[in-house]
Amino acid sequence: MDRDLVVAAQRGDQAAFVDLVRLHGGRFFAIAHRILRDVDRAEDALQEALVIAWRDLPSLRDPDRFDAWVHRLLTNVCIAEAGRERKRINNLYVLPIDDPAAPDEFLGIADRDQLDRGFRRLTPDERAILVLRHFVGYEPTEIAELLGISAGTIRSRLHHAHRAMRAALEADARAAVVGGASR
Amino acid sequence: MNHPSDIDRVMQAWMADGPTAIPDRVVDVVAARIGVEHQRRGWPFPWRPPMNPLFKFGAAAAAVLVVAVVAWNLLPGGSGPGGLPSPTPQPSPTAAPSGSPTATGPVDLLDGSLAAGQYRIQDPSGHPGGPTIVANVPAGWIGHPDVPAVTSPAENNDGILISFMETDGLFKDACHWDVDGTKSATHGDVVVGPTVEDLVAALKANTSYTSSAATPVTLGGFDGQQIELQLPGSDVLAACDRRPGQSTGDYFVFPNGFYAQGPNSRWHLYILDVDGTRLITMVSQAEGTPAADITAAEAIVASFEFTQ
Fold it and tell me: ipTM more than 0.90?
C-alpha cells in the first residue's frame, strides 16, 4: 500500500504524497520535535523536509525505503535548524501532548527539566543521534548509514551524549543533596 | 544511573513524552507548497563543482570584448577587415516556457520537456570558452541546462541520460573513491595524460569496470574514440563509498564527474578532441532502457555540431 503511494507520488501524484504525509507525518513530526524541543521549529523543519522530499522523490531508488529516506532528510533539516537555534535565546515552549506517556515513576519533573537542559547543551548532531537511537530505535550502524557518518563516529558521539545526559541528571541529584544539607 | 541500560531507559522514557500527531496546518501547508513545487527528474545526475568566480569574470570580460569588436566592425566606415556583411536574417526562435517548447531552430537548451528541434548546449566541458554543442533533440526529451544534460522521456530510471564533461583523472577503484577522506570525490588517484588516446588507455587499463574495445568516431567534424563501460550491479554499489547524506553507495569513474546512474549502468563514451578540448559525451543507459530510446540517443549524438 505504502509502496503504491510512494510510486504514485514519484510520478507526480500530489494526493498520494499528501496521503503519505498523513500516514507517516505523526512519526516525522515527533522526530522533529524531539530533536528541536520546540513545536514551531519542529513544524517549520518538517514542512521544509517534506517539500524537499516531494521535490526529490523521483530520485528515491527503492520506494520501500521511503520512511528511512525521509528520516534522513528530516534529520538533516533539523540539525541545520538546531544549529541556528543554538545561536538564539532559549525558547521554552509549553508543549501540547497529544499522547502523553503513561505515568513514569522512573523520571520526576525535576529529572525531565534537567534532561531538557542537558539535551539543549548537546551539539545538533548529538541530539539527532540520541533521538534516532532512543526514539526511533535505530542501531548505531543504521544511524551511520542514514547520516553518512562512520559507525565508529556515531558510537563515539552517542557515548559523549549519554555521558552529558548522565551528568545533567547527576548534577540535579547533587544540587538536591546540597540543598538539603543547607537547611 | 551509571549502567548503560539505565541511561537507555531514561532516554526512552523522556522521549516518550511529546506530540505524536502531525498538526493539520503542517499538512495543509505542505499540500499547498507541493502544488507549486516541481519534482526533480529521477536521475542522480553527474555533477561538477561551481564555476570558479575568476572564470566567470574572465568569461564576462571576454564577452564584453567580443561585443565591442563586433560593434566596432559594424560601424559605418569602420576599419575592420572589409567590414562585416549586413546581418543575414536568422531564425529567431523564442525560448518557450518549460513544458511547452516550440523550438524550430537552435535555441538554448530549455529546462523541462522539449519540442523537437535544435538546441544549443552551452559549456558542456564545464570551462568557459570551450565548445558549444548544437544537437537535434526529438520531442518529449527533457532538457537540463544547468547540468547540462538531456534525458529520455521515460517515466522511471530506465531512461537514457546524455551528459558531458572534461577530466584529467580517474579513480583507480571507482567503488572506493574516497581516497582523500573528504567524501567529496574531487580528486582522482589516476593521473591521465592530455590526449584522447591517453584517456582511452586509462579507461581500458582500469579493472574496476569492464570496457569494450575502443573504436574511432567522428562527430561534428571532430575525431575521437568511442568506448563502452559496463558498470557493476547493486551488490557492488551497496558497498561503495558514500557521499554525505546518501543512503546508497556511489560509483565514481571520474573525479568531479560522472558516477553510476543506477545498478548495471552501461555507458557509451564519446571522447573527442574539439579544438584542444578533450570533451567526453556520456550516454548512460540502464538495463531496461527501451531500444527506441537508445536509437534516439544515438541520433542525437550523431547530430552534434560544435561551435566556439
Answer: no
